[in-house]
C-alpha cells in the first residue's frame, strides 16, 4: 500500500473524479514538501557544490560535491537561457550563501555568503590539450587561410614535442616492461624503509622515556644538527680561580657577629623612622645616658686596675685563684660590652601621660 500511495495509484473509496486528480482532491502539491514555497516562485532542490569554497560565516572549507537542500528561483535570463539562483545554509554554522548560474561563461558565480577557492589556471601553460572555442571553430570553417596557418602551427608544435614523447615512451617501456618485477622491486624498497622507520621510532621512544619527555615528537637528524652538537661543549662560565676568589671575598666581607649587626641595623632603622616623622617624638634623659657611659668607662678603668693588682705566683692554689679571677673579669667585660650598645629612649610629648 505504501508504494501505491507513493506512485499515486491508490484511489480511496470517497474519491470524486469530478474534483480532478488526487493532488487536487487532497489539496496538496505533487512535490509535497519541496513545493512548500512554490507560491513565492521557490522550489526546494538537492544542490551539489560545483567547486571548493570558503564559508564567510565560520571560515571553514567546503569541498566540491557536498550536497545541500537549496531554494531554487529564477532571477533572470541570458538570451533564452534562464539564470537560476540557489540559496542554502552552511552545515557548520548559521550562515547562508547564494550561488547563481553563469550561462555566458559556462560556470557558477557566488553572489554572497561564501568565497571561491581559486584553483583555476591557464591549461596552455602546462601543455594541456585545450579544446577550440566556438569563435576559432567558426573561423576555421569559414577562412581557408586561417585553417592553413592553424595547421602549420600544430605541425610545428608536434615536431617540438616529439623528442619529449620519445623519452617518455622509452622510460615507461624500460620500467614497466615486466609489471611483476617492477611491483616486487617497489615492495622491497617499501619494506626496507618501513624497517628503518620502525627502528628509528624505537630509538626515539627510548630517548624520550629516558628524558621523561613522552609528550614530544622528535624530528629527524640532519647534518647541520650534528655539526652544531659537535661544536657545543658543556663548561662553566667561570674558572676555578675566579670561583675561589669569590668565595674568599664573601667570607672576608661577612660579619663575624651576626647578632650585633642585626641589633645595630634595627637601631638605625628605628632612628631613621623617628627623624622622618613630623610627630613631636624625641630623645629623653640625655644626662642619664651620659652618666651611664661614664660609669661604663669607670668600670673599664677598674677592670684594668684589678688586672694590674693581680699577683703572679707559681703555686697551684694561686693558679686556681687566678683562673677564677680571669673568668670573673671576662664576665664583667661581656656585661660592659652589652651595656655599651646604643639605646634610644623615646617619648611622645604630645601624649597626656608624659611628664
In a few lines, what is going on in this structure?
This protein has 355 residues and is of the alpha+beta class. It has helices spanning 2-6, 22-26, 134-142, 144-175, 179-211, 223-231, 240-253, 258-276, 286-309, 316-340; strands at residues 43-48, 53-55, 61-62, 67-78, 81-89, 96-102, 107-112, 114-116, 281-283, 346-348. A hairpin with a 5-residue loop joins β2 (53-55) and β3.
Explained architecture:
With 355 residues, the chain is of the alpha+beta class. It is 49% helix and 15% strand. The protein has helices at 2-6, 22-26, 134-142, 144-175, 179-211, 223-231, 240-253, 258-276, 286-309, 316-340, and strands at residues 43-48, 53-55, 61-62, 67-78, 81-89, 96-102, 107-112, 114-116, 281-283, 346-348. The chain is elongated, with a radius of gyration of 53 Å. Residues 274-294, 309-316, 341-347 and 351-355 have low confidence and may be disordered. Helix 3 (134-142) crosses helix 4 (144-175).
Task: Note the main attributes of this structure.
355 residues; alpha+beta; 5-stranded antiparallel β-sheet; 3-stranded antiparallel β-sheet; 10 strands; 49% helix; elongated; disordered C terminus
Question: Strands, helices and their partners?
Answer:
Blueprint: H1 2-6, H2 22-26, E1 43-48, E2 53-55, E3 61-62, E4 67-78, E5 81-89, E6 96-102, E7 107-112, E8 114-116, H3 134-142, H4 144-175, H5 179-211, H6 223-231, H7 240-253, H8 258-276, E9 281-283, H9 286-309, H10 316-340, E10 346-348
Antiparallel strand pairs: 1-4, 2-3, 2-8, 4-5, 5-6, 6-7, 9-10
Strand order across the largest sheet: 1-4-5-6-7
Radius of gyration: 53 Å
The major β-sheet equals:
5 strands, antiparallel
3D shape: elongated
Strand content: 15-25%
Based on secondary structure, the structural category is alpha+beta
Continuous helix count: 10
Order of helices and strands: HHEEEEEEEEHHHHHHEHHE
Q: On the 0-100 scale, what is the average pLDDT?
A: 77
Amino acid at each position: 500500500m505504501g508504494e501505491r500511495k507513493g506512485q499515486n495509484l491508490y484511489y480511496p473509496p470517497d474519491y470524486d473524479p469530478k474534483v480532478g486528480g488526487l493532488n487536487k482532491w487532497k489539496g496538496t502539491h505533487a512535490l509535497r514538501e519541496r513545493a512548500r514555497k512554490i507560491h513565492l516562485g521557490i522550489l526546494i532542490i538537492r544542490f551539489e557544490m560545483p567547486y571548493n569554497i570558503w564559508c564567510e560565516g565560520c571560515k571553514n572549507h567546503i569541498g566540491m560535491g557536498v550536497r545541500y537542500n537549496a531554494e531554487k528561483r529564477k532571477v533572470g535570463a541570458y538570451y533564452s537561457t534562464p539564470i537560476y539562483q540557489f540559496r542554502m545554509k552552511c552545515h557548520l554554522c548559521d550562515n547562508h550563501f547564494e550561488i547563481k548560474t553563469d550561462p555566458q561563461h559556462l560556470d557558477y558565480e557566488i553572489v554572497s555568503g561564501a568565497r571561491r577557492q581559486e584553483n583555476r589556471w591557464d591549461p596552455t601553460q602546462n601543455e594541456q590539450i585545450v579544446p577550440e572555442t566556438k569563435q576559432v571553430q567558426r573561423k576555421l570553417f569559414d577562412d581557408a587561410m586561417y585553417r592553413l596557418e592553424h595547421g602549420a602551427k600544430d605541425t610545428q608544435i608536434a615536431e617540438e614535442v616529439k623528442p619529449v614523447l620519445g623519452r617518455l615512451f622509452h622510460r615507461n617501456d624500460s620500467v614497466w616492461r615486466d609489471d611483476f618485477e617492477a611491483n616486487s622491486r617497489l615492495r622491497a624498497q617499501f619494506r626496507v624503509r618501513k624497517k628503518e622507520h620502525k627502528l628509528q621510532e624505537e630509538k626515539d621512544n627510548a630517548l624520550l622515556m629516558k628524558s621523561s619527555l613522552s609528550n614530544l615528537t622528535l624530528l629527524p637528524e640532519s647534518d647541520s644538527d650534528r655539526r652544531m652538537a659537535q661544536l657545543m661543549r658543556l663548561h662553566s662560565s667561570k674558572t676555578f680561580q675566579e670561583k675561589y676568589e669569590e668565595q674568599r671575598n664573601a667570607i672576608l666581607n661577612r660579619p663575624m657577629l651576626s647578632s650585633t649587626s642585626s641589633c645595630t641595623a634595627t637601631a638605625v632603622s628605628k632612628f631613621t623612622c623617628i627623624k622622618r616623622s613630623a610627630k613631636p617624638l624625641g630623645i629623653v634623659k640625655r644626662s642619664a645616658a651620659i652618666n651611664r657611659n661614664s660609669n661604663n668607662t669607670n668600670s673599664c678603668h677598674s677592670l684594668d686596675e684589678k688586672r694590674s693588682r693581680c699577683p703572679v705566683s707559681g703555686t697551684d692554689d694561686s693558679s686556681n685563684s687566678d683562673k677564677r679571677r680571669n673568668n670573673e673579669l671576662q664576665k664583667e667585660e661581656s656585661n660592659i660590652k652589652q651595656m655599651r650598645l646604643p639605646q634610644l629612649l623615646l617619648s611622645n610629648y604630645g601624649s597626656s601621660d608624659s611628664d
